[in-house]
From TrEMBL:
It comes from the Eukaryota. Homodimer. Keywords: Apoplast, Secreted, Signal. GO terms for cellular component: apoplast. This is Dirigent protein. PANTHER family: NUCLEOPORIN-RELATED. Belongs to the plant dirigent protein family. Dirigent proteins impart stereoselectivity on the phenoxy radical-coupling reaction, yielding optically active lignans from two molecules of coniferyl alcohol in the biosynthesis of lignans, flavonolignans, and alkaloids and thus plays a central role in plant secondary metabolism. Its main location: secreted. GO terms for biological process: phenylpropanoid biosynthetic process. Pfam families: Dirigent. Residues 1-22 form the signal peptide.
Length: 184
């Protein structure tokens, strides 16, 4: 009985090894083979307008503590901000920054961002990149992680360097330049 179990075990192992080998890369259909990874650099401007008759970002939540906080800690904003080629709001539209950000710092103005950069123009039309991370908004230059993407940016990872181009302290409106490097 033990010999027959051993023989069955050996036959099963050999059969499973052949089955696993059938999934080797060279045996895969061309459409399933992984493509060579690409590095892409993108530059655009993010226009965050919280004032006026037609804001692109609106407050959706705040705590009772927010009014006492110098950093507006606890405020959550929902955004659908235009992304343009240049800092002028009338420059060519390349996409939309859609998502939310909230004030996450009690002692410094830092935002937690969960944002999709949805592109509407050029080779990345219909594709998006996802940003999730801390944005120290008052730092002149800051780095944020790119944690994913869709379309031509599927499986993207990388980083975004954000630099404030213009900020109105009275209204809270801002224009931020983004330089993004992603591997996808």
């Amino acid at each position: 009985m033990a010999k027959s179990c051993l023989v069955l075990l050996i036959i099963s192992l050999m059969a499973s090894m052949q089955w696993v080998q059938s999934f080797r890369l060279e045996n895969m259909p061309k459409r399933l083979k992984p493509k060579k990874e690409t590095v892409t650099n993108l530059q655009f401007y993010f226009h965050d307008t919280v004032s006026g008759k037609n804001p692109s970002a609106i407050k959706v939540a705040q705590s009772a503590y927010t009014e006492k906080s110098p950093t507006l800690f606890g405020t959550i904003m929902m955004a659908d901000d235009p992304l343009t080629e240049g800092p002028d709001p009338k420059s060519k539209l390349v996409g939309r920054a859609q998502g939310l950000y909230g004030s996450a710092g009690q002692d410094e103005l830092c935002l937690i961002m969960a944002m999709n950069f949805a592109f509407t123009n050029g080779m990345s039309n219909g594709s998006s990149l996802s940003v999730l991370g801390k944005n120290s908004a008052l730092s002149p230059v800051r780095e944020l992680p790119i944690v994913g993407g869709t379309g031509v940016f599927r499986l993207a990872r990388g980083y975004a360097v954000a630099k404030t181009h213009w900020f109105d302290i009275t209204t809270g409106d801002a224009i931020v330049g983004y330089n993004i490097t992603v591997m996808h």
